[in-house]
């Protein structure tokens, strides 16, 4: 059974960068597609980015395109989200998810002060 644990969240200022990580245990994460989603208070969970292991394809929400970069490391069984030029509207709990499955992490809080 796959378990996902996010880390790396924190409090940053607008314009700063932050990298969050998703560690997988139980089995390999590098088979299908891993995604990052986020949920701000009072809002629905939304797609942020996805990485397809088979061909390293990346996909991004329009709101983060050009600022965020998703990546994966098979050797470490981990996925990452590099977030640059953070904005207050990026503030949310960020979740790692194996797309197409029921596996989600517990989330990591990203707070962006203006």
Q: Tell me the series of helices and strands, N- to C-terminal.
A: EEEEEEEEEE
Strand order of the largest sheet: 2-10-9-4-5-6
**Structural class, please?**
mainly beta
Helix content: under 10%
Mean pLDDT: 96
**Span of the ends, CA to CA:** 40 Å
Number of helices: 0
Account of the 3D structure:
By secondary structure, this protein is mostly beta strands. It is built from no helices and ten strands. The protein has a six-stranded mixed beta sheet, with no helix packed on it. A four-stranded antiparallel beta sheet has the order 1-3-8-7, with no helix packed on it. β7 (68-73) and β8 form a beta hairpin. The radius of gyration is 13 Å and the shape is globular.
Question: Brief description of this entry?
Answer:
By secondary structure, the protein is mainly β. It contains no helices and ten strands.
Give the arrangement of secondary structure elements.
Elements: E1 3-7, E2 10-13, E3 18-25, E4 33-39, E5 46-52, E6 57-60, E7 68-73, E8 78-83, E9 92-98, E10 108-113
Parallel strand pairs: 2-10
Antiparallel strand pairs: 1-3, 3-8, 4-5, 4-9, 5-6, 7-8, 9-10
């Amino acid at each position: 059974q796959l378990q996902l644990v996010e880390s790396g969240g924190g409090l940053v200022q607008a314009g700063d960068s932050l990298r969050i990580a998703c560690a997988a245990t139980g089995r390999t994460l590098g088979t299908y597609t891993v995604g990052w989603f986020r949920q701000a208070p009072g809002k629905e969970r939304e797609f942020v980015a996805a990485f397809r292991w088979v061909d390293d394809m990346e996909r991004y929400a329009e709101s983060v395109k050009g600022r965020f970069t998703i990546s994966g490391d098979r050797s470490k069984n981990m996925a990452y989200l590099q977030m640059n030029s953070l904005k207050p509207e990026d503030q949310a709990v960020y979740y790692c998810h194996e797309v197409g499955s029921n596996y989600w992490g517990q989330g990591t809080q990203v707070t962006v002060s203006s």
